[in-house]
Amino acid sequence: MDLMLYNTLSRSKEKFIPLEPGKAGMYVCGPTVYDYAHIGNLRSYIFADLLRRVLEYNGYEVTHVMNITDVGHLVSDADEGEDKMAESARREKKTPWELAEFYTRDFMNSMELLNLKKPTIVCKATDHIREMIEFTQGLLEKGYAYRIEGQGIYFDVSKFPEYGKLSGNRLEDLQAGARVAVDERKRHPADFALWKDAPPEHIMQWPSPWGPGYPGWHIECSTMAMKYLGKQIDIHTGGIDHIPIHHENEIAQSEALTGKPWVRYWLHGEFLQVDGGKMSKSLNNFYTLATLQERNIEPLAFRYFCLNAHYRTPLNFTWDGIAAAQKSLERLRQGYNNLPDDGQPAPPQMLERFHRAINDDLNVPLALAYAWEAVRSPSPGAKALLDRFDAVLGLNLNAPQVAKELPPELARLLEERNQARAARNWAKADALRDELARRGVTVKDTKEGTVWEYNPPA
Predict the structure, then answer these.
(1) Would you list the DSSP string of 159-202?
(2) pLDDT tens-digit map of 130-151
(3) What count of other Cβ atoms lies within 10 Å of the Cβ of residue 150?
(4) CA dist., res. 220 & res. 73, Å (int)
(5) Which residues are CB-neighbours of 448 under 8 A, at least 6 positions away?
(6) Sequence-distant (≥ 6) Cβ neighbours of residue 357 within 8 angstroms
(7) What predicted TM-score, i.e. pTM, was given to this entire model?
(8) Surface-to-core class of residue 336, CB atoms within 10 Å of its CB (0-12 exposed, 13-18 middle, 19+ buried)
């Protein structure tokens, strides 16, 4: 059955037809690693992961490229203000390189906790400076770019007649709505930086034909997407906030350089709201996966929470809502574990319904409802069916489960061990620890006290 995807460019669902039969290339706008990723950011990557899983479910060999922005993303997406990396580095008293390494590692850990498939290629902006300079030179040679002394190289949007085709913005409207603060040396207020001149004190800078500098944010994605996926690519994803500036600029510079249509399918995920409003540190509602874990919410419960809304629908985060998601995930796991391993194949009718749902522009909420149906009304092959479903849902239903409570007898042994430690009877404490280990209880002694994990023996 056909895979239908909503293309922001055409504002309609379209049948997915890749550039190369049997293969799919997708570029995902990755994080700017100047701070922790909050759960609003992470919803976008859950959406991208679902898209990849649906493509693979349909038999495509997927090349999934994600960038790491570790230079060039200014405080304003419209090329105004300070580089986010430099600003954050100064605040945290680290070098931008140390900052990037720390927050990149944290982001990749968040991906793992959410069971997001690792991209085929993870590419850092700072590893591709030469290619960005060459891209900029190409645009200068073709007459699409110009230099402002002391500022850098800018793209001339008036030279690209289709500017605004993704967002629907018109150059005349952008001209009329321009702020007074826009640099008057720009030919058009919407012109954007390809390469920025760096003052001597700017730590992140590289030599270029125009003097020391660093790349603009928008050119980074175009350069890396083309390097790893070619001059034309199948799919580009991101949040809806990227549509009017970042992705519009990517299209303009890419198609100006190559003279060809660049991305065939643009897919954008909606925002995650918090208590009906925006998430921000100033409102004290900036939540990360660590924030959830502090309240005994698993990262996979947040993934489950996101599965309940279509990626193009705003989703409202509340603590009651995420607590309900945690309980629902636990019940779904329990239902899966209670199903017999009967060796029967998955029922084809249910598989077809599931496949039809996910192929209708990733209708994952409906697909999740079919998973619940399989648990509540089990039929022969129900466990095999859920295994197939979970290849897309990514909830790790077949992973060994860690119990949250100990059976009474094991709880008594653990208490005896605690008393033995308190009495400094180390021999008895060690013997009880070994006994608990034989019964599936791993005990660790920390500064905060004794913690345990229980994996019941099969």
Answers:
(1) G-TTTTTTT---HHHHHHT--TTS-TTSSSTT-EEEEEE--TT-
(2) 999 999 999 999 999 999 999 9
(3) 9
(4) 10
(5) none
(6) 363, 364, 366, 367, 370
(7) 0.86
(8) buried
Is 28:107 a contact under the CB 8 Å cutoff? no
Which of 269, 359, 279, 259 lies closest to 311 in space, CA to CA? 269
What value, to the nearest 5°, has the Cα angle with vertex 438 and ends 435 and 441?
Answer: 85
The answer to whether the CB of 140 falls within 8 A of the CB of 208 is no
Q: How many C-beta atoms lie closer than 10 Å to residue 306's C-beta?
A: 25
Q: 79 with 151: CB under 8 angstroms?
A: no
What pLDDT digit, counting tens, does each position of 306-345 carry?
Answer: 999 999 999 999 999 999 999 999 999 999 999 999 999 9
On whether the CB atoms of residues 69 and 33 are closer than 8 A, the answer is yes
Task: Tell me the pLDDT tens digit for each residue of 78-90.
Answer: 566 667 777 777 7
Structure tokens at 151: 């500022």
User: CA 69 to CA 75: how far, in whole Å?
Assistant: 13
